[in-house]
Design a protein that fits this description.
Blueprint lengths: L7 E4 L2 E3 L7 E2 L1 E5 L2 E6 L1 H5 L7 E4 L4 E4 L1 E6 L1 H7 L4 E2 L8 H13 L7 E6 L10 H8 L4 E5 L4 E4 L1 H6 L12 E5 L6 E7 H11 L4 H17 L2 E9 L1 H12 L6 E7 L5 H8 L10 E8 L36 H13 L4 E5 L2 H17 L8 E4 L5 H10 L2 E4 L2 H14 L10 H6 L17 H10 L20 H7 L2 H6 L17 E4 L16 E6 L2 E5 L7
Parallel strand pairs: 1-6, 2-7, 8-15, 9-10, 10-11, 15-16, 16-17, 17-18, 18-19, 19-20
Antiparallel strand pairs: 1-4, 2-3, 4-5, 7-21, 11-12, 12-14, 13-14, 21-22, 22-23
Length: 552
């Protein structure tokens, strides 16, 4: 067989290339895991040989594999076995939550903790009181992490287990909420205070268990056509797990490591070792380092210049403008050291004050080490005012947009920031028109990893309830379906300096593909969230097929 002959040819499809000409072609050839040729059937048959395998795509639409450029599979993997998933689909009311707690703790062995995650008080009946949690848990320690990962609920036994009472000092950049009238703990804990409980519960996690959990998490990712995941705030245990999974051939999805600045000393270890962004291979690669100084708008902790509006939570500060989790001078020093060492820098900014803070950090690093194509990123980057957009453009910063929030958390954003603010929330039309790269991401499992729900919101500017995400009287920030798709493919790859090998279907790029059940570019925009992935390919190998979907 000629050395150029394809290993695999996929025929009779609608391959959405997302190349510079936005071509749609009918056939694609794969050699050694990469795209050898694409175009008409005749074009592709020219590179066939006697051993070339063929698959008929039966007219299905095929897109480049999704690149989720900011998600947390490692934290999800750590929780998938031992924590309770309390997402709204499972917990529709406060009574349902308390019943779940009572049933679980009733059979729990002595010394065990009830740990829950993905709780959304807006969709599950509000926050239960400390007294309600104590009654339901029967004296066993309990901690529930809110869906944003920034706030949590603890019961009295959990506070006692960590030696915390009403007189305990708040940890730096965190808070134990108190009833303003009685001074008693309410059970709600914020930011670094929540991480005291998370760290306590997860202290015994093992790399082997994380590997098992990652296989489960990535199975779901592949069902949504995600073939590359950039793991935000990757822990040291996860870095070990990814390497061991690769060695054992258990890794069926490409991983980009964004090293956690939250784990003390981890970024500094990469700097000392001389590890630079790009280190690794096509399966596991170091993308960047990241710090998380800003917080949660849906949880009313993200940093804004103007106070939050709407209903306050018991114990919430007056004239609440949110909080930042680092001192500016400290984070400038950390980020500058990483940037100077050749590591791409990501800094989280959600509210306008938080985004300004992130840009201050990035600007300081660039002043110390000017770099033309630095690709530093502001993560989430939700509330982008015109002034911030100009600053982002001038500094050539990537707006790493939390588009996943639009669908599941959009109503909370509107309630907490007001209708007028929504015209500047995730302003993708303005970002595209200004030439600012703005990839989309899920932040899973803060929100579902399903990219099509986020694309639906980007195109329709609606939340999952149908609530509007544009400001009254302001120009719409809606984008086209193709623009939304590019945000989850080519722009995602660009944000990790991988656009030369993924994100579009072009000769020489990795043959990472998602086969859809309908033509995403031709359907009415209201159908986008109904799109299902029939199969996912990694390097031309089928790594997922939906039950009941016919094979080629």
């Amino acid at each position: 067989m000629p050395h150029t002959a394809a290993d695999l040819i996929l025929l009779n499809g609608r391959f959405v290339t997302l190349d510079p000409q936005s071509r749609i072609v009918e056939a694609l050839a794969v050699k050694d895991g990469r795209i050898l040729a694409l175009g008409s059937r005749d074009d592709v048959e020219n590179v066939s040989g006697p051993e070339t395998q063929r698959q008929d795509m039966a007219g299905r639409t095929v897109i480049p594999g999704i690149v989720d450029s900011h998600c947390h599979p490692d934290s999800a993997a750590a929780r998938v076995a031992g924590w309770h998933n309390l997402e709204p689909a499972a917990i529709a009311s406060r009574e349902a939550l308390l019943r779940r707690i009572a049933e679980a703790t009733d059979v729990m062995p002595a010394g065990g903790w009830f740990a829950g995650y993905r709780f959304n008080e807006r969709k599950s009946g509000g926050y239960p009181s400390l007294a309600e949690l104590d009654r339901a848990s029967g004296g066993k320690p309990l901690f529930i992490l809110r869906t944003d990962g920034h706030l949590g609920l603890a019961n009295s036994a959990a506070f006692q287990a960590l030696g915390i009472d009403r007189d305990s000092q708040d940890p730096p950049f965190g808070a134990f909420d108190h009833d303003p009238e009685t001074g008693a703990l309410t059970g709600l804990v914020r930011e670094t205070a929540a991480h005291l409980f998370i760290d306590h519960i997860q202290a015994q996690d093992r790399v082997e268990g994380m590997m098992d959990g990652l296989e489960t998490v990535f199975g779901e990712f592949l069902s949504y056509g995600i073939t590359s995941a950039y793991n935000s705030l990757t822990s040291s245990k996860a870095i070990q797990a990814y390497q061991r999974m690769k060695e054992a051939q258990r890794l069926k999805l490409r991983v980009g490591i964004i090293v956690s600045g939250r784990e003390e000393g981890l970024v500094e270890a990469f700097v000392r070792a001389g590890i630079r962004s790009g280190f690794g291979d096509d399966l596991v690669r170091v993308i960047a380092v990241e710090w998380c100084p800003d917080c949660s708008t849906s949880g009313r902790t993200a940093a804004y210049y103007e106070p939050y509006v709407g209903e306050k939570v018991l114990g919430e500060p007056e004239d609440n403008t949110g909080m930042l989790l680092y001192e500016l001078g400290d984070l400038r020093e950390r980020a500058t050291a990483a940037h100077t060492a050749g590591l791409q820098v990501c800094v989280e900014g959600v509210g306008d004050r938080g985004i300004d803070f992130a840009l201050d950090v990035i600007e300081s690093a660039l002043e110390a080490q000017p770099t033309a194509d630095h690709r530093m990123r502001v993560e989430h980057c939700c509330y982008v005012t015109p002034e911030l957009l100009e600053r982002i453009k001038r500094m050539q910063v990537i707006d790493s947009s939390a588009t996943g929030f639009m669908y599941e958390l959009g109503d909370a954003y509107r309630a907490n920031r007001g209708a007028e603010a929504m015209g500047r929330m995730w302003p993708h039309r303005s970002l595209i028109d200004a030439g600012v790269p703005a990839p989309g991401h899920s932040d899973a499992y803060v929100c579902t990893p399903n990219p099509f729900t986020a694309m639906w919101s980007m195109v329709n500017r609606l939340s999952d309830s149908g609530g509007p995400l544009d400001g009254p009287g302001a120009p719409s920030q809606a984008v086209t379906i193709e623009e939304a798709l590019r945000a989850y493919t080519l722009l995602g790859a660009y944000s990790g300096r991988e656009e030369a090998i993924k994100g579009s279907l072009e000769p020489g790029k990795l043959a990472d593909l998602a086969v859809l059940d309908r033509d995403i570019l031709a359907i009415p925009s209201q159908e986008i969230r109904e799109v299902q992935v029939l199969a996912s390919y990694l390097g031309g190998d089928e790594v997922y097929r939906r039950n009941g979907a016919a094979s080629g």
